[in-house]
Structure formats: structure tokens, C-alpha cells
Specification:
Blueprint: E1 12-14, E2 17-18, H1 35-39, H2 47-59, H3 70-73, H4 81-112, H5 117-137
Antiparallel strand pairs: 1-2
Helix pairs in contact: 2-5, 4-5
Length: 138
Amino acid sequence: MAKSLQTPEPELLKPGVKAPVQETLLTPRFYTTDFDAVAQLDISGHELELRAIVNELRADYNRHHFVRDSEFQQSWEHIDGETRRAFIDFLERSCTSEFSGFLLFKELSRRLKDRNPILAEAFQFMARDEHRLNTQRI
């Protein structure tokens, strides 16, 4: 039976509060989003540009970009070995990344709806696009 390495007890800043993990390639730092800070952003200096971006997102020029054509529908059983493992790893990481982006953008759109409507609408469209991209991979 294989034995895993011992996991050290986490350093505590005070009882019940862990010290932040040192960021390395193998232990990336996870982030939290300060929704109130985003809601209070002063976008007045960039409002025209943001409205133009929202209009492009609304037009949805990429709606037919991710289409499962005959090339996609083929069997991928011919990929084997290390290439197969890398391909599956890529798909898993991509789906995880797109899904977490979808969740973040959706939550931002929901929380900003009444406080920063332009950003809320932009994040709503971005959530739509992340969702679309993720579901086309599955």
C-alpha cells in the first residue's frame, strides 16, 4: 500500500484562522471577490467604451462560433497514451475554468444589477458566453 506524505498542520494566525498559503506552481492562490468594491467602481470616465462593449456583447457575434461540426463529432478513440491523457487533462481544466468563470460572472451580474447596471449587463453576457463555451466542449 502506498503511503502519502504527511500533511503538516496549518499555521494559525489566531485560533480558527489559517495563515495564507504560500503561492507556488502547485498551490495557486485562490481569490475572493469584493462585490461591494466592484459595485462602487467609478466607471464614468469609461462609460462610452463600456456601453460599446455591452452593445457588442448584446449583438452576440460569436453565437455560432462554437458549433459541433462533423470534425467534432468524430470518434476520438484513436488518441492514446500520453496524448490522450494530455487531451483529457486539457478538457477537464478547460471545463473547470469556464465553469468557474461562468459562476463568477453570473454572481457579479446578480449582485451589481441594482448598483452598477452597465457592469452587471456586461457580466451577464460574459456568463452567457462562458456557459456556451463550456457546454460546447461536453
